[in-house]
TrEMBL record:
This is Pyrroloquinoline quinone-dependent dehydrogenase. It comes from Candidatus Litorirhabdus singularis. SMART domains: PQQ. Residues 1-22 form the signal peptide. The lineage of its organism: Bacteria, Pseudomonadati, Pseudomonadota, Gammaproteobacteria, Cellvibrionales. PROSITE patterns: PROKAR_LIPOPROTEIN. The keyword Nucleus does not apply. The keyword Disulfide bond does not apply. Keywords: Oxidoreductase, Signal. Its cofactor is pyrroloquinoline quinone. Residues 38-625 form the Pyrrolo-quinoline quinone repeat domain. InterPro entries: PQQ_b-propeller_rpt, PQQ_mDH, PQQ_rpt_dom, Quinoprotein_ADH-like_sf.
């Protein structure tokens, strides 16, 4: 499932004011700090987004300055499709590029990929370019140009390709590179690459891409893929596969179909239309477990044809890493027809339950709900209730789950229903228009089914919490997430009226249009804040603080710069010294917060939106905080190619 955020005219490019604290003449002694790498996308194989690096503290973070910047030049503007994707969508337009990457740092080298899958190796101290690899993809073959990261595998030996960088590409290749030189590992697959589109039903290349870094477990490299949303019921399979990291040979394949159901098409291809895994996979090396955050069975907003084929949709799935055997699965949404797929990397952490330390997997969701499950069994650590949900308003041919799961211990972060009291507008006429809109839409709270009349869903399909969250402190169990708080509109359109609609949902009676609940002025119809940073004590089940993230400076004429809390897509990272760093796609700023109070302590100006997860590392005697600033196709920030590293000033 693809994360696309539709913000109408709210999504204009803008820069936030930056209240920089000037560095004094002398900072005094900078703490020595703890040398720390960032060897995986989420800092750890279990996605904690947490670092033991502690040179940068709440006391000195205000003095951060730009240490170095790297630019790849890989930028694509939105516009008419000139390449092989031309004609694939009715509208014929292609999105801008989006630099959503979180680099990794192993030893003294930093590795990252661009939206066109070029891989760069940099000196982690200086940002000096060491090598670059170009897989030579078609820059205009994919509608959503994006690469969230690469992965690292080390054998423990010295020599060529004993340390490998693994890259998944937009044209569905898995490539192994020598970390020292950037040259292909020729013994991996066919001259260093494996074609993961092998075994798929016939499809357009834009329908099947690898956009997230593969997981590494032992000598297995494990990957899913993005399958383009809402195009047809028989889209490419969502099969998950593990390949040998040395040879590229297929080790196992897991088919996301109901037990006993067929796994292959008549022609021998992997079964079409099954749920996929587009987001980040976690692994537990000690327990030989792989944790999958699954999408929902295509298309997103109509499921009358599924008849149980979404058995593993919108779930956390645990597999045996060595064999691909199913261990357990837990479904966060039954028969998902809201695009409420599981967007974020499952986070592995130990939690305290009734005085005992329990190995957990924590899963945040687009609904703003957080599920905490036993890592070995999938059983909820605290009660999850099956509660009745709306059963009226669905289109003919659709069926609904009578109940949905609701966690009871960890607080929900999004209100499920929009009322007249929630309506807001910049001017009175705007507010009246929003109040009128509420009466026009089906609006029964969580899980109101999509309709031809239009359904108001709170939250929208972007969340709640999305792929950039969470960060969890492994000692305290404090979790920080970014939360979108803007409702969305879903409207199903009868098939005979679907000409020119981009999300066709072929094979169903309808196509679909989705968007935010916006006023005639192009701003959300609900009261701000529209996006917040939230801290939760998972063990206690308590919200510690919630603060707005972002402002409307330069979004509107003076003096309308005072609105705080913007919607968007971004990520969070936490350090052992008590800091949380956050970027957000609609704000050209990286910010630091006190994890204890939520107080903002620093902000750094960026050239465009930071639609990525920040990361940190310390190589030698200097800690760096790094963010990719490259905008987003739906967030209103222009495309960019900026890898920016901040550090305390050197004497």
């Amino acid at each position: 499932m693809v994360n696309r955020y539709y913000l109408s005219t709210l999504a204009l490019a803008f820069l936030l004011s930056v209240a920089c604290t000037p560095a004094p003449e002398r900072l005094g002694e900078i703490p020595l700090g703890v040398p720390s790498e960032w060897p995986a996308y989420g800092a750890t194989a279990g996605g904690s987004h947490f670092s033991r690096a502690n040179q940068i503290t709440p006391e000195n973070v205000a003095h951060l300055e730009l240490a170095w910047e790297h630019r790849s030049g890989d930028i694509r503007e939105a516009g008419k499709i000139p390449g092989s994707a031309q004609g694939f969508l009715p509208q014929g337009y292609i999105s801008q590029s989006s630099l959503q990457v979180t680099p990794i740092v192993v030893e003294d080298r930093l590795y990252y990929c661009t939206p066109f899958n070029r891989v760069f190796a940099l000196d982690a101290n200086s940002g000096e370019e060491l090598w670059v690899f170009d897989p030579e993809i078609d820059h205009y073959a994919d509608l959503l140009s994006n690469c969230r990261g690469v992965s690292s595998w080390q054998s423990g030996k010295q020599g060529f390709c004993e340390h490998r960088i693994l890259l998944g590409t937009l044209d569905a290749r898995l490539i192994a590179l020598d970390a020292a030189t950037g040259r292909r590992c020729e013994d991996f697959g066919d001259t260093g690459e494996v074609d993961t589109s092998h075994g798929m039903v016939e499809h357009h290349p834009a329908e099947y891409s690898i956009t997230s870094p593969p997981a590494i477990l032992g000598e297995n490299v494990i990957t899913g893929a993005l399958v383009l949303d809402n195009q047809r019921t028989d889209s490419p399979s969502g099969v998950i596969r593990a390949y040998n990291v040395r040879t590229g040979e297929l080790v196992w394949a897991w088919h996301p179909v109901a037990p006993g159901d067929r796994t292959l098409e008549a022609g021998g291809e992997f079964r079409a239309g099954t749920t996929n895994v587009w987001s980040i996979i976690s692994v537990d090396e000690e327990r030989d477990l792989v944790f999958l955050p699954t999408g929902n069975t295509t298309p997103d907003y109509y499921g009358g044809h599924r008849q149980g084929s979404d058995y593993y949709s919108s779930s956390v799935v645990a597999l045996r890493g060595s064999t691909g055997e199913l261990v357990w699965h837990f479904q966060t949404v039954h028969h998902d027809i809201w695009d409420y797929d599981v967007p974020a990397q499952p986070t592995l952490v130990d939690l305290q339950v009734d005085g005992e330390t329990v190995p957990a997997v924590v899963q945040v969701t687009k609904m703003g709900m957080t599920f905490a499950l036993h890592r070995e069994t999938g059983e909820p650590l605290w009660p999850v209730e099956e509660r009745p949900v709306p059963q009226t308003g669905a289109v003919v041919g659709e069926y609904l789950s009578p109940t949905q799961p609701f966690p009871t211990h960890i607080p929900h972060l999004v209100d499920p229903i929009v009322t007249a009291d929630d309506v807001w507008g910049m001017v009175l006429v705007d507010q009246w228009a929003c109040a009128k809109k509420i009466a026009e839409y089906n609006n029964l709270g969580w899980y109101t089914p999509p309709s031809v009349e239009g359904t108001l869903n709170s939250p929208a399909n972007a969340g709640g919490n999305n792929w950039g969250s969470p960060a969890i402190h492994p000692d305290s169990g404090v979790m920080v997430v970014y939360t979108n708080r803007v409702p969305g509109i879903t409207r199903l359109i009868p098939r005979q009226q679907c000409e020119g609609v981009s999300q066709q949902m072929k094979g169903t009676p309808h196509c679909v249009q989705v968007g935010m609940f916006m006023s005639p002025l192009g701003i959300p119809c609900t009261k701000p804040p529209w996006g917040t940073l939230d801290a939760i004590d998972l063990n206690a089940g308590k919200v510690l603080w919630s603060v707005p993230l972002g402002t409307t400076r330069n979004l509107a004429p003076f003096p309308v710069w005072w609105i705080k809390g913007l919607p968007g897509l971004g990520g969070v990272m936490m350090t052992d010294s008590g800091l949380v760093f956050a970027g957000i796609s609609n704000s050209h700023t990286l910010r630091a917060f006190d994890v204890k109070t939520g107080a903002q302590l620093w902000e750094g100006k960026l050239p465009t939106g930071a639609n990525a997860v920040p990361m940190t590392y310390q190589v030698g005697d200097r800690q760096y905080v790094l963010i990719a600033a490259g905008g987003h196709w739906g967030g209103g920030s222009p495309p960019g190619d900026h890898i920016m590293a901040f550090a305390l000033p050197v004497k």
